[in-house]
Write a structure and sequence with these properties.
The chain is mostly beta strands and 318 residues long. The protein is built from 5 helices and 20 strands. It folds into 2 domains: 141 residues, no CATH class; 131 residues, no CATH class. Strands 1, 2, 3, 11, 12, 13, 14, 17, 18, 19 and 20 form an 11-stranded mixed sheet that branches. The longest helix has 14 residues.
């Protein structure tokens, strides 16, 4: 065997394993074909949790809650009952949140042997480290630049790749990985490869409810990634609140109720930091909050942060 062949094979495995994560288990939510009278949503300064460990920072978002196929109205009881269609938004993900996305969701499949991913930034680049467990653990290191494709995906160009601390050039060509290798991966969704770049669709990279919209910008911002959708940062919809989720018009279902011509606003009860909101436990947050009914039948709910709820404080809505 030629010197260095075990390292080449192991490094080739790193690339193939990166292309076959649990992302394949993330189906794209299908919006209803002709939704009628959908509610409008405005979000400001919200730490939006998909799970206790998986979250994004919604700086500002303006859009609609569009029911998915098989659902007449969006329901907070069923996160897969709607998608968030936005025409203007800014979303921020810290490097810690991005690493959590990979470790707890994209790479959670038993088939994915890339583990312990750590992400940092260096100037306008990402720096990615992790371990490939195939036989013995093999560390890898990569630097990458961010960009956008014309078909609404994030392009991650790998500029420097090292396996076991040795530099690797011409990643895909060196290890003989072609588009055939990628297409042959059964069920792969949301990720593809173009030369030495990964193409990721952020609209299918998260659990429901998924965000829909034209991505118009992506950049490294401090120790985070800043995503811009549509027209960018929308104006605040409410001058009296700093952190909130406001739903107006259309129909929305929550708990055992359905609200027509909706006017429901959840306001952070501790506005000094972002509103920590966990959709799958929203009912517990509402129970712990302060509900006010206005003369025009609107609901204004001051809600505590999810992280501040006592353990087992209530039974979630079902």
């Amino acid at each position: 065997m030629k010197p260095g062949m075990p390292l080449l094979r192991a490094t080739r495995s790193i690339v193939l394993l990166l292309l076959t994560p649990a992302l394949a288990q993330t189906p794209r939510q299908q919006a209803a074909v002709h939704p009628q009278n959908v509610p409008h949503v405005d979000v400001a300064n919200v730490l939006f949790r998909y799970s206790p460990d998986l979250s994004i920072n919604v700086i500002r978002l303006s859009g609609s809650l569009v029911p998915t196929q098989g659902h007449a109205v969006p329901s907070f009881n069923e996160p897969d009952s709607f998608v968030i269609a936005t025409d203007a938004a800014q979303i921020r993900m810290t490097t810690a949140q991005l690493a959590a996305l990979m470790n707890s969701w994209l790479l959670s499949s038993p088939r994915a042997q890339i583990k312990s991913v750590r992400i940092a930034t260096a100037g306008n680049q990402l720096v990615i480290d992790g371990t490939m467990k195939k036989g013995i653990p093999l560390p890898f290191h990569a630097a990458a630049a961010l960009g956008l494709t014309r078909d609404n995906r994030i392009r991650i160009d790998l500029r420097q790749v090292k396996a076991a601390h040795l530099p690797v050039k011409g990643l895909l060509d060196t290890f003989g990985i072609t588009m055939e290798d990628l297409v042959s991966q059964k069920g792969l969704k949301g990720m593809s490869v173009d030369g030495d770049a990964f193409l990721i669709d952020p609209q299918t990279a998260f659990p429901p409810p998924q965000v829909r919209g034209q991505i118009t910008g992506v950049q490294v911002s401090g120790a985070a990634i800043l995503l811009t959708f549509g027209k960018g940062l929308p104006p605040s919809a409410d001058t009296h609140a700093r952190n909130y989720i406001a739903i107006r018009g259309g129909s929305i279902r929550y708990g055992r109720e359905e609200m027509d011509n909706a006017d429901l606003m959840m306001i952070d009860s501790t506005p000094a930091d972002p509103f920590d909101f966990y959709l799958r436990r929203y009912w517990c947050q509402m129970v712990a909050g302060n509900i006010r009914v206005t003369p025009d039948q609107a609901l204004r709910i001051r809600v505590p942060d999810f992280a501040n709820l006592p353990a087992n404080s209530c039974r979630p809505a079902s």
